[in-house]
Amino acid sequence: MMSMRDKASFGGATVERDILLVEDNASDAFLMEEALQMGKSANQLHVAGNGDEALDFLYRKGRFVHAPRPDLIMLDLNLPKRDGREVLAEIKNDPDLKRIPVVVITTSRSEEDIIRSYGLHANCYITKPVRLQQFFDVVKKIENFWFTVAKLPPRDEHE
To answer: What is the pLDDT of residues 34-53, one digit of tens each?
Structure first.
């Protein structure tokens, strides 16, 4: 589990946003962190390396007992232990988690994966670009959309 701490300014107020990246490829996780650091509105990135670790983070189990509730989940589909489809299904079937936006970001271009992800209520499906600059551009666009354009539900007071 790695994290990146920074603050973002929205409308003059400082708001910290937490992103849970569920990604088993350390290189992709590193690139995601680099892309977020390049942006002017950096957020805190938490990385879970498999589906079980992601659910432990979300349910605040074990070493994640003090984990923050993420404002956004970026989810790879092909994960060890519990795959991304299973994680997505569990998130969207849980009344306390289902309002967290989930962006599927994966190498799969399979129409079946796209249809199934949206059927499991993914909020967005993105195929990872192969070229480095395109990858950075996509990450910046995801961050910009979800944290400046879209209106997210308020965080619960007890979180």
So the answer is: 888 876 665 889 999 999 99
For tokens 């979180």, the residue is 159
**Is position 101 within any domain?**
yes
Of the candidates 37, 30, 20, 121, the residue with the CA atom closest to the CA atom of residue 76: 20
The number of folded domains in the chain is 1
Residues 6+ apart with CB under 8 A from 155: 69, 71
Query: Tell me: the pLDDT tens digits for 73-93?
Result: 999 999 999 999 999 999 999
* Torsion, Cα of 87, 26, 107, 23 (10° steps): 10
67: Cβ–Cβ under 8 A, 6 or more apart, which residues?
46, 57, 58, 60
